[in-house]
Write a structure and sequence with these properties.
Length: 430
């Protein structure tokens, strides 16, 4: 990082302009950055007096305490790799088919006409909220994945992101799948220790007709990290989206996920797992927006909380007037492992179409069922073994569906550490 950028640590216009120079952005990108900064400046910091923010307390967040991270310091998006760290470069065949897999800054320089269509013009706009505007004005790390028409990539694309102590990681990810294309994208986010940090990430998922995307994000931030993440997916006709969100770390994590089903017969399956201990806080806000006819969405989020951890879930299913014969389901389950843990769920339905096939929602919060414990103990298990088996079973349907085996194993290991479970091989008959 240059001395000039180091000297402008606050989130000011000068800092945004310095980042643009560092990135070597074209004029149109600089203008969009400054547009975002103006929105950021004009948008008040959220507080618990705002209805949308009353369940997440950010009064202790001081943005000026964090410094911009060097480009590339918080990410490694240039290669596909497994979770053991074995690199696998994008194969020659994929390159020959026109697949683009690079940093967002490099994509702007090499493919400016392509990136200009999408960056801050489709997906998450700066007006979404204060943190979307912050991302639009100060993003540095970023990933650009573009899969041309009809190209199917089997190797998962993986980005590894981190936050340095006192750092602000502000990545922007754009994934574009043209008609009939398919891909799997995995992002693992982590940092060590309890040092303070900030993550403010935005992801735009753009699926054209008949495209299929599997999108997985797992965060295991350190206990001092403030996490704000926004993902917005736009689905064309007959496209298929499968998302998996794993929330394990952070001091406070607020995640937005919007699925906009625009095209006829678009389909979205949304899955999430979160696990909190100590005084961790998680808030998830989801939107299943059925704008087109014959669209389908199915959401299932599950969380386990212990100590004084708490979680809030607000999910909206909206069926637009043109969303005829749509089908949607939304479910949130919470397992409270002691009396100090807390979970709130608010399901919302907005049905504006005259004729839909089905629209349902449900939410639960409760402790481990004593009758289930008794049944398992009557079959020879100790109380501790029965308890662990129930908790593992609670998460099994989602974790076992993760399409990357290494991720399944890593998630089980993380859950085991947090919940003090001892089964060595979850999902293998545990």
């Amino acid at each position: 990082m240059t001395q000039q950028l180091e000297a402008t640590l606050a989130f000011t216009r000068e800092a945004a302009e310095a980042i643009a120079r560092e990135t070597g952005e074209p004029e149109w990108a600089q203008e969009r950055r400054i547009e975002s900064w103006r929105v950021f400046e004009d948008t008040p910091m959220p507080s618990r007096t705002d209805e949308d923010w009353r369940r997440t307390d950010i009064s202790g967040l001081k943005l000026d305490a964090f410094h911009p991270m060097t480009q590339g310091e918080g990410t490694s998006p240039l290669r596909a790799t497994d979770l053991a760290g074995t690199p696998t470069m994008l194969c020659a065949e994929a390159r020959e088919q026109g697949v683009l897999w690079t940093t967002l800054a490099q994509a702007m320089r090499s493919y400016p006409d392509l990136v200009e269509r999408y960056l801050l013009r489709q997906g998450v706009l700066p007006t979404y909220n204060k943190f979307a505007a912050l991302n639009g004005a100060f993003w540095q790390d970023g990933t650009f994945l573009y899969v041309p028409r009809g190209v199917a990539i089997k190797m998962p694309f993986l980005s590894l992101r981190s936050v340095s102590p006192g750092g602000a990681s502000i990545p922007r990810t754009i994934i574009v799948l043209e008609a009939g294309a398919s891909a799997t994208y995995l992002e693992w986010q982590e940092s060590a220790g309890g040092e303070a940090g900030l993550h403010c990430g935005v992801t735009d998922l753009l699926l054209q007709e008949g495209a299929e995307l599997r999108y997985l994000v797992a965060q295991e931030w350190g206990r001092g990290v403030w996490d704000f993440s926004i993902t917005r997916a736009t689905l064309g006709a007959d496209s298929r989206l499968r998302t998996f969100g794993i929330g394990l770390g952070a001091k406070s994590s607020r995640v937005h996920l919007d699925a906009i089903l625009e095209g006829n017969a678009a389909d979205a399956v949304l899955r999430g797992v979160y696990c909190g201990d100590s005084r961790q806080h998680f808030e998830y806000r989801t939107l299943q927006d059925h704008a087109g006819p014959h669209t389908r969405s199915d959401l299932l989020y599950k969380g386990a909380l212990k100590d004084r951890a708490n979680a809030a879930y607000t999910g909206t299913v909206k069926v637009e007037p043109d969303g005829l014969h749509s089908s949607s389901n939304q479910t949130n389950h919470n397992l409270l492992l002691n009396s100090g843990a807390k979970a709130d769920s608010i399901p919302i339905l907005e049905i504006l179409a005259k004729d839909i096939d089905r629209c349902s929602h449900g939410a639960t919060a409760g402790q481990v069922d004593e009758s289930q414990l008794f049944y398992l103990m009557s079959r020879g298990l100790s109380r501790a073994e029965a308890y662990e088996l129930i908790v593992v079973g609670f998460f099994e349907s989602i974790v076992s569906a993760l399409p990357v085996p290494e991720l399944q194993q890593r998630v089980w290991e993380s859950l085991s550490r947090k919940l003090a479970l001892h089964f060595a091989e979850h999902g293998e008959g545990a």
